[in-house]
Amino acid sequence: MYLKMRHVVVISMCVLQTMAFVVQQSGKEEKCPEQITHFMGHYVLNGEPVVIKCPAFQYLQMDLSRVSPSSFNIAWTKNASEYLYAGRQSRIHPKKESLWFFPALIEDTGLYSCIVRNSSLCTELTLSLTVMKQEEVHVPDIAYEQLAFEHSQFQMFCPDLSDFTINRTDVQLQWYKDGKLLENDIKYMYSSGTTYMHIIDIVKNDGGYYTCKLQFTHENKEYVVSRIIHLRIVGKDKRHYPVIQYPNHKPIAAAIGSKLLIPCKVYIGNGGNNPIVWWLANDSYIDEFFGDGRVIEGTFQERTESDGHYIDVSLIFENVKEEDFNTEFKCIASNDYGSQVLPTHIRRAASPFTWYIPVAPAVLVLLIIAVIVIYKYRKAANKKEYSLTKS
Ligand SMILES: *[C@@H]1O[C@H](CO)[C@@H](O)[C@H](O)[C@H]1NC(C)=O
Ligand SMILES: *[C@@H]1O[C@H](CO)[C@@H](O)[C@H](O)[C@H]1NC(C)=O
Ligand SMILES: *[C@@H]1O[C@H](CO)[C@@H](O)[C@H](O)[C@H]1NC(C)=O
Ligand SMILES: *[C@@H]1O[C@H](CO)[C@@H](O)[C@H](O)[C@H]1NC(C)=O
């Protein structure tokens, strides 16, 4: 039996969900005219089943309001050349907009592209996958960020499990903290059939690394799916503040002339309290600063996820220009209680998008380095991020 949770506040800051899209509109002839680099790195453990999803529809929907998955063909390529085909026996197989690995192995580390097309439209998205050895895993790289408020009860979700729990009635997670199995007791409460755990009366010491594990059977083989969560604790007084989930002080790379979309995703808890989200460029409103409409704000989108309500307002660059690299962009989220400001900068991408094709492994290394740098930067910036100011 669970207690009624009155003030359950969950901020999932999926560090792997670093979302930024760079699109180059005029690619190579044989390529799709529309190419997107999705900077979301997937970091997974060797030997575990993995699902990666093509984010094209999300992008098409957000940007062009044209979406109807069934009217598209989706092809997956590995390493920008090798096509992956569905096949019962194959360890890696595409299934609609998902690519399944049973299981993922170290050698699968690489770049994967999904090419989404019908007779009139073609978009190619590239994602990176990094498979790490269990015993050599760098925990901050793989962990999902979650945030809990002191003296509250916290509902910790085991993230990204839906592909493994769908159609199942036997879901039974095991939870660990710092490698120790957590007893389902007074402090930690979880039950079968759910993918979350309640932590009662959050104190500073509850911060740290948690692991949840799920058994998964595929073709009569047993697998374990594990997720590592980094829980951070913040003072109770900040509970009703809106919290910007991303961008998170991450530098965003873009090539001149490319299309770029920067989402600002804001956690607003139970909703209400008149939340608003907007962007500024050099401290001016976007429509004033960009009178020509080259850069616009996307529509205000509100949606509910398992841990609460979110608002998403994107900053959309039709084509990135030199001057954008010197301009400070800020996402501002505000409600009746307070506000949070998150400055972000766009920096010049080291090279145009299409350059990954002949030199994929080199790009992969750069991507990994970039992600590591982003992590370091983020960690350093975390303090600032939560020193919210009263509006
Ligand atoms: C990518 O392709 C290159 C050249 O074909 C090959 O040397 C490399 O091992 C491949 N990498 C992966 C991860 O498949
Ligand atoms: C291709 O997809 C777009 C977007 O859904 C749609 O508008 C268009 O009609 C489709 N073309 C064909 C030939 O199905
Ligand atoms: C879940 O069930 C639906 C309908 O029965 C099926 O199409 C789908 O493949 C199943 N999903 C998984 C992951 O087994
Ligand atoms: C924004 O401000 C910076 C620093 O004050 C300045 O260098 C830059 O030119 C400004 N951007 C534009 C587009 O005016």
From TrEMBL:
It is a single-pass type I membrane protein. Belongs to the interleukin-1 receptor family. Residues 33-130, 140-226 form the Ig-like domain. GO terms for biological process: cell surface receptor signaling pathway. It comes from the Eukaryota. Residues 1-20 form the signal peptide. It is found in: Membrane. The chain crosses the membrane at residues 353-375. Keywords: Disulfide bond, Glycoprotein, Immunoglobulin domain, Membrane, Receptor, Repeat, Signal, Transmembrane, Transmembrane helix. GO terms for cellular component: cell surface; plasma membrane. It comes from Xenopus tropicalis (Western clawed frog). InterPro entries: Ig-like_dom (IPR007110), Ig-like_dom_sf (IPR036179), Ig-like_fold (IPR013783), Ig_sub (IPR003599), IL-1_rcpt_fam (IPR015621), IL-1_rcpt_I/II-typ (IPR004074), IL-1_rcpt_II-typ (IPR004077). SUPFAM superfamilies: Immunoglobulin (SSF48726). GO terms for molecular function: interleukin-1 receptor activity; interleukin-1, type II, blocking receptor activity. Its main location: membrane. This is Interleukin 1 receptor, type 2.
